[in-house]
Amino acid sequence: QGLKMYKETTGLVPRLLKLAKQFNCFYLEGSSNGESCLPFIVGSEQVGVVRPKVASILAHYPDVFQVNSGYITLVPSLDGYDKRTKAVDAVLRDCKEKGVFLALRGWRDECYEIKRVFSSESLFKMDRSATCLFGICNYGVTINGYVHDPRLGLCLWLQKRSLTKQTWPGKWDNMVAGGLSVGHGVLETAHKEAEEEASIPPELLKKIISRGSVSFFYESERGVFPNTEFVYDLELPLNFVPTNNDGEVDKFELLPTKELIERLFSPEFKTTSCPVVVDFLIRHGIVTPDNEPQFPQLVELLHVPLQSLY
Predict the structure, then answer these.
(1) Which of 10, 179, 184, 212 is the most buried (most CB within 10 A)?
(2) For position 7, what pLDDT does the model report?
């Protein structure tokens, strides 16, 4: 009853819908500066979109990129995975040295596969920090660690990101999350990140349950982010407290639902981690369609059709 009253008095779904529009700003409105992005074509497939300013810089590398009036592509001689990977990497490292792209300040020496859709064969690989320059779909894994507290009800663990993180330093985030790097599967990544970020032991990880995915299309000053997150739920024992192993987390906090919702609206929460939390609140019956005519719009904005967008 208390949660229901809280929802009704604060207009929760309209507030969440406003938040969903923020993390889907590119999908809904296109580039913030009003410019038309160029399709990025590799072989015969579109794998991304490139903002005009980025395209103008890539035009200085004609041995790798062909920049036309209507699209940008790789030169035809780069006709295989290894050739493309090597050539594009050389350009990006040169751009990093020259400091021309904000995104490359977060260089990770960790690559993502570049493909049209998740099921496609990979065309080449690229440092994860650079994919937003090309509007390439990224894939990640998130684990919702939650408990049913007898006094507080449903509670969710959050982490506060380390101040040394290349992106979103010091922001609140999901308990466990990580990108899908070259050579790692979805469940494998979930287990790896759970151990590194939260010291979750194997016997507890046996209980994680796949809960589908969320997808959204965000833009920031760093670039364009079409993201899909594979989502897992993990009910944890009341006495379990996550601890960090890799130096990338400042601290963890367990929040009851009401506090979680307010934290979600805080500028201290990582914008691109909001979709997973909203999805969690819907699936666990905290956010419902009862007397909420905008509920279908909210759900749609958690599942942007990225696999058929290009």
Answers:
(1) 179
(2) 44
